Predict the 3D structure of the following.
Amino acid sequence: MTIDDDARAHAEKKARIKDVKDKLYATKTKEKGLLVVHTGTGKGKSTAAWGLVMRTLGHGLKVGVVQFVKGRRDTGERRLLERFPDLVTIKVMGEGFTWETQDKARDVEAARAAWQEAKAMFADPSYHLVVLDELNIVLRYDYLEIAQVLADLAQRPHMQHVVATGRNAKPELIEAADLVTEMTLVKHPFREGVKGQFGIEF
Amino acid sequence: MTIDDDARAHAEKKARIKDVKDKLYATKTKEKGLLVVHTGTGKGKSTAAWGLVMRTLGHGLKVGVVQFVKGRRDTGERRLLERFPDLVTIKVMGEGFTWETQDKARDVEAARAAWQEAKAMFADPSYHLVVLDELNIVLRYDYLEIAQVLADLAQRPHMQHVVATGRNAKPELIEAADLVTEMTLVKHPFREGVKGQFGIEF
């Protein structure tokens, strides 16, 4: 095969792929607010939600964030969100990271209060995107009833996107979702004794 | 088991988990710039990179972005990045999305030029984070030599983080990386005829 043949074969293959993709995309026409789930034990679940937030803010659209697990406050994402006070509403579940508390009744109460904040966002169609950060954790511990959560999600405005994050997503949530990605850990710097790095981890 | 017993068991379990985590974190002390790879066929690879960008910008630190596959220009992430002209440098590989071109020699040339832009960022320690968006695609087609890419990455400043995205990450890149996440498709709205949604897909 000469170089010209190789170039021609390459061009033909690319043209075929483009043709298949164009035909596929042409069949995809529905518009709706998506229920997106980021789950799995790997990194990037919340980080990819922040990427969606960034995209939404770039378009000048409103974002609501409910954090069901309160981590450190001085994160980069938090600081960036605070630069868009007209577009961003953040609510943090009251009782802190669940590994740090040892009071189940208090956690349940806090989860319910946080869910009320989420429902207030579902009731307001001006929110283009609602992030339910670490919702899967409170669902896993049954701090919220999955049936009620799904019923409330189904009542949200037709074009409102929701992204729910956290490992161990419930099968019922995956079933209801439009787009589900599992983040799988392939390699983690902890193995080498490297700690969570500023600007990456927080 | 009474309610009190249940609450006590819950508290004890949480306390044990917290103890294990605290001990684990205490052993993680090294600081270094991470080579992060987001790969797999699922969504969220570039989106999670934008989340890291958001975090970095929130801290007021500089970000360099090299996009090896030029998509649409009017994305939300692009618009947001343009709001931080003092902190963000974006370089886009000249010849567009590779499925759209049918000229391998031109693609190789464009990939090499884009890599020079990446190298210029590696040479500047003021960049806290460098995003090599869709690098894996040009590596997969051997538009760039993996050995040279790894050598150049190894020369970057000690505390500079790099995130490389794209499906089909080369084993050599995974081997060299500190943190690798595979995004796995669990469910995609294409199945239901739903198109890429504004604010989610772009």
In short: Chain B has a mean pLDDT of 87. Chain B touches chain A through 88 residues (CB under 8 Å).
